[in-house]
Design a protein that fits this description.
There is one protein chain. The protein is an alpha+beta fold. It contains 9 helices and 12 strands. It has 3 domains: 2-78, no CATH class; 99-301, Alpha-Beta Plaits, CATH 3.30.70.1230; 302-346, no CATH class. Strands 1, 2, 3, 4, 5, 6, 7 and 10 form an 8-stranded mixed β-sheet that branches. A two-stranded antiparallel ribbon has the order 8-9. Strands 11-12 form a two-stranded antiparallel sheet. Helix 1 packs antiparallel against helix 2 and helix 5 packs antiparallel against helix 6 (175-202). The longest helix is centred in the first third of the chain and has 56 residues, at 28-83. It is elongated and about 125 Å long. 23% of the residues are buried.
Length: 346
């Protein structure tokens, strides 16, 4: 114990008491004063020992409390990790930090909605063994979820072979930025699917999955839906239905986006206009666009050149330039450079 550190002081008291017993002081008054000082010293030492004992007890309590807090933090981290497997990590974080509550409250926000499913899923899997189906679905959802979390998507739910995700809640980077992140995610998913298809064929699956993706941007109701005892944090509205309708119309391995989304991402994609659609709950004319290419360095395109200035935007995909067009491109660029050199600065 800490109070055992006072061995020297205890020895001093013992020696002092011995001096008094031996009559070391010839002057009785001096002996009396010495005895009084020794008594005060013993009292002071006892108080110090008492304080040290109290300090030791408090230290033990603090250590015990720190251990309890450490265990609670471990439990909370484990709970958060487990909940994140059932709920979107952003929602779990909002709940644990108190940013989101459990009241049945919703709000209207402009979101970019992602919807996907597997083309002819029932037909593809009807003769498949449950173990093989579980392997394909789990590997598919695992890879797609990793990509979704990388791009910041809020994963709403898995519905059979379908996935519903959205951007813009509970966190948003801006409406345009959310739409661009969603499109980049969709392209990354389709590229990953091509690799998965090769892996599945190598493992002996003759008919691997082909994913279709629909994306739409619009106002949705987002929040807690359900009852006081059981609720889901999800989105509803006609714009969600439109994303699902676009997905149905998308080609296998394709991405179909609404005109509202295309208006936000047209600087980073090439897309082809497709026939108009009608969707339940949507009164406006729906013109879908099929994405054919994306100008995005993040997706690994070393031959992509993209620069943007006020009054000038350059997007060049050197990999797709035809040899017969190369001369005309160089001539056009030289004319542009000549004009820029002629124009006065400022």
């Amino acid at each position: 114990m800490s109070y055992e550190l006072f061995t020297d002081e205890t020895e001093i008291i013992t020696q002092g008491e011995a001096y008094l017993e031996q009559g070391a002081f010839a002057d009785p008054e001096a002996a009396k004063r010495y005895a009084e000082l020794l008594k005060q010293y013993k009292k002071l030492l006892k108080n110090l020992q008492r304080l040290m004992k109290l300090s030791d007890r408090n230290e033990e309590k603090l250590n015990a409390m720190a251990h309890v807090m450490e265990e609670k933090n471990k439990i909370q981290e484990a709970l958060s990790a487990n909940l994140s497997k059932y709920l979107s990590p952003q929602i779990v974080h909002s709940l644990l930090t108190g940013e989101k509550g459990t009241d049945l409250v919703t709000q209207r926000k402009k979101l970019t909605v992602f919807f996907s499913d597997i083309k002819d899923f029932t037909k593809t899997t009807e003769n498949m063994q449950p173990e093989d189906l579980s392997y394909l679905l789990n590997s598919y959802f695992t890879e797609m979820s990793k990509i979704a979390l990388h791009y910041g998507a809020t994963i709403d739910k898995f519905i059979g072979d379908a996935m519903l995700m959205f951007f813009g809640d509970p966190e948003t980077r801006g409406v345009r930025e959310d739409a661009e992140a969603c499109v980049r995610m969709a392209v990354a998913m389709q590229r990953r699917m091509r690799k998965l298809q090769s892996t599945w064929r190598f493992r002996g699956y003759k008919d691997p999955f082909h994913m279709r993706i629909g994306i739409n941007t619009g106002y949705c109701n987002v929040g807690n839906f359900g009852s006081e005892d059981r609720m889901d944090y999800t989105i509803i509205g006609g714009e969600v239905n439109l994303a699902a309708r676009l997905e149905v119309q998308a080609e296998p391995d394709g991405i179909l986006i609404s005109s509202d989304t295309y208006a936000l991402v047209q600087d980073i994609v090439e897309a082809e206009e497709r026939p108009k659609l009608m969707a339940k709950g949507i009164e406006r004319e729906i013109i879908p666009y099929a994405i054919t290419n994306i100008y995005d360095e993040e997706l690994g395109c070393p031959d992509l050149i993209r620069s943007e200035f006020k009054g000038l935007r350059i997007i060049a995909d050197l990999e797709r330039v035809n040899a017969e067009d190369k001369g005309a491109i160089i001539e056009s660029m030289e004319q542009l450079l000549a004009r820029l050199r002629e124009e006065p600065a400022g």
